[in-house]
Amino acid sequence: MKKLDIIIKPEKLEELKEILDECQATGLMMTNIMGYGNQKGFKRMYRGNEYEVKILPKIKVETVVSEEIAEKIIDRVVDEISTGNYGDGKIFVHDVEDVVRIRTGERGDQAL
């Protein structure tokens, strides 16, 4: 099993949810976050003054899926969410040793 931490622009959330549904991910957790990567923010003019926005709004979506589904999701996100610009986001992939469904005690893929 793999855990995917997918960091995207907020406006791409609906597209990502469609991808996850179509790839049969059984669930997701979403968090509003702030941060920056290679772009280090941007500069804006407001009422004649220039200021820097260094921390940008992002969405972090977490899901745990089988290895086969993880690769499908990664490929589709890279193909469909990417704009080719800085700030498109990242996907962090983690190995998941086990998962337990609290309600039934099921473990592994059956617990997803």
Give a brief description.
With 112 residues, the protein is of the alpha+beta class.
What does this structure look like?
The protein has 112 residues and is an alpha+beta fold. It has a single domain, classed as Alpha-Beta Plaits. Helix content is 21%, strand content 36%. It is built from 2 helices and 6 strands. The strands form 2 sheets. It has a 4-stranded antiparallel sheet with strand order 2-5-1-6. A two-stranded antiparallel ribbon has the order 3-4. Strand 3 and strand 4 form a beta hairpin. It starts with a strand and ends in a 17-residue tail after the last strand. The mean pLDDT is 91.
Index terms:
112 residues; alpha+beta; Alpha-Beta Plaits; four-stranded antiparallel β-sheet; 2 helices; 6 strands; elongated
